[in-house]
Specification:
disordered N terminus; mainly beta; 31 strands; 367 residues; 12-stranded mixed beta sheet; 2 helices; 8-stranded antiparallel beta sheet; 4% helix
């Protein structure tokens, strides 16, 4: 009974009421949150896939677990993620601790319940402890509520080897950047990456106000499927991650990773496009504003890799551009960076070659 009262009280205080505003032409105050009615008869389960909007709740394609459009996802302090329908009736009860853990490109491993795949044409607005996800017509298709930091079942992000790290990167800190585009070719696969290990390649803008948030067009090598995959990520190291659709890639495909601020709708657009096949993945959050001292980088990240057979072939990032509201930035100077914590066998073979600063960089590996 106490938890039911807690859930009701939590959502009866509208997450947007303190900021009653129109954002990008959207009046968020119109989206009221119903009373959430907990059903104690629902068994708490564990899942092995990220939460994805589908027609009916159930396991769908590999790596995702479907929840209905209009769902309300409530991350409670007791470590249970509860899914409610749009009217506040409970559909699912999921254990964060027992569910599969996902290594994210923000450097945080978190339960798959805290990673949400949303449609590529949707928009995500962050207000207080609630994320409102809207379709192009302004229809509310998902609400995600985080009861508080006490509910976080994972450590905060660090760039230091605790089984994961950026292995090598070319990076700089820029003030006010609103667009960063990079091209690269999908490299050869790691010779012997095993299930449980992960490789990510991406370009990124990271802001830190009001809290760290990473905007990343990402490709990853999936050892379980033995293939390259791509997704657009909006990564919150301290909360919920939002990602676009998953696209399947091939070695040799030309990728475009574009991150830009849409000043009309007041949100970021993160796009990963396979220029060879025409497939794309998009996520559009307003999680942070354009700001000073943003990290920009192109990077190779490894999870639980232990020798040189776990890394891919060399990757050349090229035709990179950096803009402030459409105007090219002239003060960008990329510097090499290497992990001080990853296995030395891997780092000894890494080399960040600045071919044309800041437009072309090659990340060399042993392969």
């Amino acid at each position: 009974m106490l938890l039911t009262v807690l859930l009701v009280n939590m959502v009866l205080v509208p997450a947007v009421s303190a900021e009653a505003e129109v954002t990008g032409g959207v009046d968020l105050d119109q989206y009221t949150i119903p009373n959430l009615k907990m059903d104690r008869s629902i068994e708490t389960i564990a899942i092995s896939g990220i939460l994805s909007l589908q027609g009916e709740p159930d396991k769908t394609e590999s790596g995702t677990y479907g929840i209905p459009f209009g769902s309300i996802v409530f991350h409670a302090a007791d470590g249970i993620t509860r899914i409610f329908d749009k009217d506040g009736d409970q559909l699912l009860s999921i254990s964060d601790e027992r569910s599969e853990k996902i290594p994210t490109p923000a450097g945080v491993e978190k339960p798959c319940t805290w990673v949400h795949q949303i449609p590529d044409d949707s928009r995500a607005y962050y207000r207080g402890d609630t994320i409102f996800v809207l379709d192009p017509a302004g229809e509310l298709i998902l609400r995600v509520i985080n009861e508080g930091t006490a509910s976080k079942p994972y450590p905060e992000s660090t760039r230091g080897w605790t089984g994961h790290d950026w292995l090598e990167s070319a990076e700089d800190y820029l003030n006010g950047i609103t667009e960063y585009t990079a091209y690269w070719t999908v490299p050869s696969a790691p010779p012997s990456l095993e299930v449980g290990e992960m490789i990510y390649l991406f370009n990124v803008i990271q802001g830190n106000t009001p809290s760290p948030y990473l905007l990343q067009p990402v490709i990853r090598y999936n050892p379980q499927q033995q293939r390259w995959e791509g997704q657009a990520w909006g990564c919150d190291p301290d909360g919920t991650d939002l990602i676009g659709s998953t696209i399947v890639l091939n070695t040799g495909d030309t990728m475009e990773g574009r991150i830009y601020w849409d000043g009309v709708r007041n949100l970021w657009i993160v796009t990963l496009e396979d220029r060879t096949t025409g497939q794309s993945s998009v996520v559009a959050p307003d999680s942070i504003q354009p700001q000073s001292n943003c990290l920009v980088a192109c990077a190779l990240e490894g999870w639980y890799v232990d020798d040189s057979t776990d890394v891919p072939g060399d990757t050349r990032f090229y035709s990179m551009s950096y803009k402030v509201y459409g105007v090219p930035m002239m003060n960008v100077h990329l510097e090499p960076w290497y992990s001080s914590f990853a296995p030395q066998e891997i780092i000894d073979q890494c080399f960040v070659e600045i071919i044309q600063n800041p437009y072309q960089v090659k990340l060399h590996t042993a392969n």
